[in-house]
Amino acid sequence: MTPGLIAVDIDGTLIGADLQLADAVVSSFQRARDAGWRTVIATGRMFRSALPWARRLGVTEPLITYQGAWVRDPVSFETLWHRVIPEPLALQVIAAVKRHGLHLNLYREDVLMVERLTREVGLYSAHSGIEPIVVPDLEPHAGQATKLVAIAAPEILDSLDAEFKAEFATSMNVVRSNPRYLEFAHFEASKGKALAALSGRMGIEPDRIVAFGDADNDADMLELAGLGVCVGEASVRARQAARRHTEPVGLGVAAVIDELLAP
User: Fold this and answer.
1) Intra-chain end-to-end CA distance of the chain, in Å
2) Does a cis peptide bond (omega within 30 degrees of 0) precede residue 179?
3) Are residues 154 and 92 in the same domain?
4) What is the DSSP-derived secondary structure letter of residue 167?
5) pLDDT per position as a tens digit, 52-102
6) Shared-domain flag, residues 171 and 200
7) Scanning 9, 49, 56, 193, which has its CA 20 to 30 A from the CA of 129?
8) Count of CB atoms within 10 A of residue 169's CB?
């Protein structure tokens, strides 16, 4: 392929549960940039949570964060794109999630807010590197929320997935980012839409995009790319959207990049 844009998800794609980023992956990204490729991170993580990984990879292009709801430059911190959830919808989600007794994260102005410290938020914080702010009620903070995430055991979210999507899927982007997270964002926010806008700004056509992901929230990005690659234990939806599958996590990405750079 003519050098274009490499877009990569973080969790389950670049790194696994051990949060280890292989040196070979870092090296492959640098070789790609040396060969003329531009590199982008596209993640559901907060900007603050994604930034350390971007710096380790040497990525200086705008970061696609919050499932595409917030695109922000990691050097100048300029915001290129930010779609917040309309307050009435955010309040509806809060009420619906509380009705089922699930833990809920609310993200506003790159700050994580919760109503109480639970096992779910403890695991989330350890994984994301972000400590939450505990507030008495999430409702007063619903205005200008970037994202909401319900966290529960996979079997619980499996049983509620259809109900939540029936209630909100026509007005919001509702997607599973992993078996334990059900995420709610602005209707126009998705990795694929953000990547299309960012690549257009760079003057790069979709057929010159190589995208890597592993979950449902990566599907539209994998479909957009000229070469969509699902990684590791990819979800059914990600596998359907991708043209190719690679493993293991991290090193599989590096191997595909090395193929792109081969004479």
Assistant:
1) 11
2) no
3) yes
4) H
5) 999 999 999 999 999 999 999 999 999 999 999 999 999 999 999 999 999
6) no
7) 193
8) 14
